[in-house]
Each structure stands twice: as C-alpha cells, then as structure tokens.
Amino acid sequence: MLARNFIKHIPCKNLSRHHILRDRVRPLIFFTSSTPQSSFSISASLSTSSSSSSSCFTDESFAAPYLSVRIHCPKHVVDPFSEALLCFGASSVAVDEDIKEEDDKDAASGSSIASKEICIESIFPVHEEVKMCISQAANSIGLKEIPKFKVEMGDEQDWITKNQDLFQPVEIAERLWIVPEWTSPPVPEAVNIILNPGFAFGTGEHPTTKLCLLLLQSLIKGGEAFLDYGTGSGILAIASLKFGAASSVGVDIDPLAIKSASHNAALNNIPLEKLELHLAPSENSSSGREMSLQKEQFDVVIANILLNPVMELADHIVSFAKPGATTGISGILSEQLPNVKERYSPFLENISTATIGDWVCMSGTKRGEFIDN
Ligand SMILES: C[S@@+](CC[C@H](N)C(=O)[O-])C[C@H]1O[C@@H](n2cnc3c(N)ncnc32)[C@H](O)[C@@H]1O
Fold first, then answer.
1. Is residue 69 part of a domain?
2. How far is CA 236 from CA 13, 26, 33, 131, 156, in A?
3. HEC profile for 78-93?
4. How confident is the model over 31-83, as pLDDT tens digits?
5. What's the pTM value of the predicted model, to 2 decimals?
6. Which residues of 330-359 are buried (b: 16+ CB within 10 A; e: fewer)?
7. pLDDT tens, residue by residue, 114-163
8. Are residues 96 and 211 in the same domain?
9. What CA–CA distance (Å, rounded) separates 191 from 175?
10. Is 54 inside a domain boundary?
11. Whose CA is nearest to atom 25 of ligand 1?
C-alpha cells in the first residue's frame, strides 16, 4: 500500500487522469492505476513466439476475474476520492463526466454541493479487501463516513467487451495509427500499432501517450535500444520496434500492464528476442528498485508515469540512459513543469518540451557528468 500522505501531497490532476473514453450515452472520465504490490520477481519476459498471440497471453489469463464496485461518494470530493481509491488498490475508476461538469459549475457558482452524491464505477483485483481500501481512501481525504458501495464479480473479458465500442482507431500522426485489436486498420499501409489495452493505460488517446509517441518517432532512426519506463499497454515499447529500434524493454509496477503489454506484443508480431518486459518493484517494496537492467545501456529512454514517481525516480530513470542519450519524461501537467525541470536539470541538458492541452512531455540529453543543483 502507498503511504497515506502520498495522496495528500498530490493535487487532483497529478494522478492518473489517464484516459477519456466516451460512452454512447454518457461520457466517462476513465482513470487507471497500477496496483500496489508488496514484492515482485523482477522479470516477466515474453514467453511466446511472434507468430502465436495466444500462446504468450492465454485467453484464460486475459479473462482474469475482477471486482466491479459502484461507490457513492459526496460530489465535492469525487476527484481526491478517486485518486485515493487508485492509491489504495483500485485498478481503475470511472466517473460520469456530465455529472462532474455540473459539479464544477455548482462549485463555480458557490452553491452548496456537499450533500450531493456521485457514483464512481471502479474495478478492483479480486484479492483486494475492497472495504478496507474504500475505508482507507475515505480516511485519507478526511471523509467521516465510509461511502456506500456495491460489489459485483466480473471478468476482464466482460469489461473489454463492454468497452470495445469506446476505443476507436486513433491517428497519432500521418501514417501512424493505434488500432484496436477488434477493428481493421483504416490505413493499412500506415504504421499500425494493434492494441488491446485490457486494464492497462495506453490506447493512444491520452495527450501524454501521443506526445511520447511523437518524440519516439523523431528519435528512432534505426538500431536503438529503447527503455519504456511505465509501459502500461506496451504501446511505446511496441511502437519503438515498429519505428526501427533494435530492442525494447518495458517496465511497469502493475502485473496487469505486463500482461497487457505481452498480449499486445504478440498482436503486433514482435519477435520474442526484441522485447523484454519487467515487473518493477513498487515504491514500498523492500527489495528496492534493482532490476536486471544494466545502467547506461539505452539510446532512448521514455518515462510516461506520474508526477510523484517521475520526481522520485529521476536519477534511477536517467541512470539507464547512455551519456548523450535522449530521455523523455511525461505524465506531467504544465504547472508541474518547473519542478520537474529543476529535478532533471542536473542529469539532462538541452531540455525541450512539447505540450498538448495541459499535458507536457519534457526531453533532454543525458549529461556526461551530473552537476550539483
Ligand atoms: C500513464 S501510464 C503510461 C503508459 C504508456 N507508457 C503510455 O505512454 O501510454 C503509466 C504507467 O506507469 C506505471 N507506473 C506507475 N508508477 C510506476 C513506477 N514507479 N515504476 C514503473 N512503472 C510505474 C503504471 O502502472 C502505468 O502503467
């Protein structure tokens, strides 16, 4: 579990507003998160040949059961409470955007909203103690009562089927498309990354994913070793290989992300020897952050995670880049950029930024020698 003050120090927008999906009837804001883990073995390399998607990622494992939990919480705390749920064990939370917009208008007009409730649709892994997670999340944001909730069993396949219509092909750039597994590429001759994100983040719809893909496309000239720190669906790792990288490594603290990335690698016929996936120790793991990755082995490193890990792991992330290699950092908002820049400037030079909306991707080249701040 993450420490309680982890949430308190993070403004709402910092965490996990990962992904906006539109429902036919009502839009949803869809958040996803890593599942906190206590300890991990470090490597979960692909275990299939490129020609067989099912052998690497069996239908059985993909249809893992989950708990679907509807939680009624006071509207005025929906953002911090959603963030807190993610920190205390939810795999994803979805909030009705129409109701949230109403809420924001109420807040702007100063009307009393404390009594109104909003329903958060969340998903928890089956092993999570849902009541305890909800209670910890409520405590962490100062809610006096534990919100009412209802739990149902589901399986991942249900969830995916339910949400299939929502994820449509995404054009990232001319001749670069992200295409759901269940649709045909609109431009067959383009670079098409075939995806089924499952529970993992990374459908290409989020601005940070787009920014990272564009950065990656500009950096990969052929033959590079690429590190995707916070791989989610594996979208960047897979894209790097399609752009011509020689090898790619994806790291994530979420086992569901590793599963999803593995499945997606097979969908894209990625040869086994070209992609490694590593389950990283989480923040609280006593095993520390050592993985079987060598320092200074990558020509390009991108970490699209969130503000807190980006700040905390700065030297760790940069340590994997070769001197002179470009490191991209995303998952951050414009208002957070000054702090992130300051944190990385001892390690990176020639820093530049790209933005879409409020979201930023910062990149720079690794210094030969680090400077004191
Ligand atoms: C915003 S998603 C990015 C996914 C994908 N790379 C993309 O660009 O769309 C962030 C991912 O980072 C993972 N993550 C969060 N904290 C992490 C950490 N400390 N170490 C490794 N991965 C982490 C999350 O589980 C999640 O899958």
1. yes
2. 23, 30, 17, 35, 23
3. HHHHHHHHHHCCCCEE
4. 434 333 222 222 333 322 232 222 233 333 445 577 889 999 988 888 788 87
5. 0.69
6. bbbbeebbeebbebbbbbbeebebbeeeeb
7. 457 889 988 887 877 899 999 989 988 889 899 999 998 876 666 666 66
8. no
9. 6
10. no
11. 34
Tokens 């911090």 -> residue:
80
Select from 10, 19, 34 the residue to mutate for testing ligand 1; criterion: most ligand atoms less than 8 Å from CB. Answer: 34
Measured distance between the N- and C-terminal CA atoms of the chain, rounded to whole angstroms: 32
Which atom of ligand 1 is found nearest the CA of 16? 1
| Residue 354 structural domain | 166-366
Residue having the nearest C-alpha atom to atom 15 of ligand 1 = 305
Q: Which two tokens stand for residue 170?
A: 């995404």
Ligand 1 centroid to 317 CA: how many Å? 12
What CATH number does the domain containing 194 carry?
3.40.50.150
Which residues sit opposite 20 in a β-bridge? 29
Count how many domains the chain has: 2
Q: Smallest Cα–Cα separation from 232: which of 207, 185, 210, 264?
A: 264
User: CA 59, CA 10: separation in Å to the nearest integer?
Assistant: 37
